[in-house]
Design a protein that fits this description.
The protein has helices at 10-19, 24-30, 33-37, 48-58, 78-81, 92-151. It has 152 residues and is an all-alpha fold.
């Protein structure tokens, strides 16, 4: 059975090591990083499974390893997290959480825009149906308050 080996840009590997969750020493113990960066033969290239494991260990998205150059992440949210320290590199867990929340926010926005007409219609019907009894109770309260104030 043939093992699927995939070439990865050395620039991407360096970027993943620098921006990953684990230290370079920990990663070197588990993976042949030097061989991956400068492969001499096809056997030096990482397997598909090794890339998956490396992605999990570094918490770098799996698809980043198939790019030709290191990805440029826009972490503008850092300026809202720290004071006067824009050079701070956020953890991969924080970046993952922010991306997850942004995608959920976008999904909810689209969902609400699609549901807007239906929700607006239901909301207006509920207001119109419920307002008359409320207004009637409110009027009765005002009348009773006026009667009481006349007596005193």
């Amino acid at each position: 059975m043939t093992t699927l080996r995939i070439p990865i840009s050395s620039e991407v590997i360096e970027w993943a090591i620098a921006h990953g969750e684990k230290s370079e020493d920990e990663l070197r113990e588990k993976y042949r990083l030097d061989a991956w960066k400068n492969p001499q033969s096809d056997r030096d290239l990482p397997t598909f499974k090794q890339i998956q494991d490396f992605s999990c260990d570094t918490r770098i998205p799996f698809n980043y390893f198939f790019k030709k150059e290191a990805p440029a992440e826009d972490n503008t949210f850092v300026k809202f997290r720290t004071i006067n320290n824009s050079a701070v590199q956020p953890s991969r867990r924080l970046i993952d959480t922010i991306h997850t929340m942004e995608s959920r926010q976008e999904w909810m926005k689209q969902y609400l825009l699609e549901q807007n007409d239906q929700i607006h219609f239901e909301f207006l019907n509920r207001i119109n149906d419920n307002m008359n009894p409320i207004m009637a109770v409110d009027r009765k309260f005002e009348e009773n308050l006026k009667r009481l104030s006349r007596k005193f």
